[in-house]
Amino acid sequence: MPWRAGPGERADPYHVWLSEIMLQQTTVATVGPYFRKFLSLFPTVAALAAAPEERVMAAWAGLGYYARARNLHRCAQAVTARGGFPDTEEELRTLPGIGSYTARAVAAIAFDRPGVPVDGNVERVCSRLFAIEAPLPASRPRLAEAAARLGEDPAARAHPSDFAQALFDLGATICTPRRPACALCPWRSPCRARAAGTAEELPRKLPRAARPDRHGTAFLLLDDENRLLLRRRPPRGLLGGMSELPGTPWREAPWTAEEAQAFAPAATAPWQEAGDVRHVFTHFALTLRIRAARLPGGLPSAAGGAFLCPLDALENEALPTLMRRAVATGLAALGDA
DNA sequence: AACGCGGGGCT
DNA sequence: AGCCCAGCGTT
After folding, report:
1. Do residues A156 and A258 share a domain?
2. pLDDT tens per residue across span A113-138
3. Do A102 and A159 fall into the same domain?
4. Which nucleotide is nearest to A27 (CA to C1')?
5. Backbone angles phi and psi of A304, in degrees to 5
6. A256-287, pLDDT tens digit by residue?
7. CA A262 – C1' B5 distance (Å)?
8. Looking at the structure, do residues A272 and A183 belong to the same domain, yes or no?
9. For A84, which of A28, A98, A196, A297 is 20 to 30 Å away at the CA?
């Protein structure tokens, strides 16, 4: 993990903070390349603060939860304005995008302040160590209490940074969600769930609600200079501030071709069916039908918030993963893949 | 307290 | 193809 300090090294608060924001709801493997890209584009928190928001959003494109990127930028500006990162949990907690978990993680890892950051890994370890049978999310306060108790151990208080990171490593490599390696666990002897044979079943969770389906149609329109028609989404909400192909709203009922046609950016273009892209969001699953066309001559409606993006500049665009796939599907149908 | 918010990895 | 994973901000 490139954000980790080596033995005897001091962790860089910028690196710790950046990695912790990226790691919210996102796996280590996914974060790695983005972390390196951000350090190369924005070597310091001041450089990140000074960058235009679109550049930050474009660099974040594909990581998801785009409010994190906007808060990251605002937080960099607040930190730069006050001359550096605060070194206590309480002050960190007041910054944009920093909640109780991240405040404790940065305080502990970057500044060696006592306190246990409670993420999903730590909740899992604690639920097993103390055999907490109540299901999440109701058990969350009890799990936080258990984690805090661990942090009060004198050995933990002596090395808060090492303790926090060791706890993450334990959850990631030994006390895993499925098939935990209890035989290898340094805490196998005090672990109550291990004794009861219930480690693999914990933490229990309330069943979650079903994900509804939604449908939409998106239009890929290419002009004779290989420029693509895009538009910007509203700044807040789903995929807020990111770019997208123009298209219909997303609703529960599928769209007929005739209904969708009313939303086409050029009524007379030779539209062809390019196929469907399916994408699962947190709270619904989307089937997006792609229709593609090449329009010789100028585009009639690059107005209304829409703009043209040359195909070879697409990597600098703030295109979320869903829209990257939609573009790829449309281009393939046009024979431009 | 409940809800909105992406994407990738594993089986 | 389906299941699993999981912090912060807003309301």
Report:
1. no
2. 999 999 999 999 999 999 999 999 88
3. yes
4. B8
5. 65, 40
6. 999 999 999 998 899 999 999 999 999 999 99
7. 29
8. no
9. A28
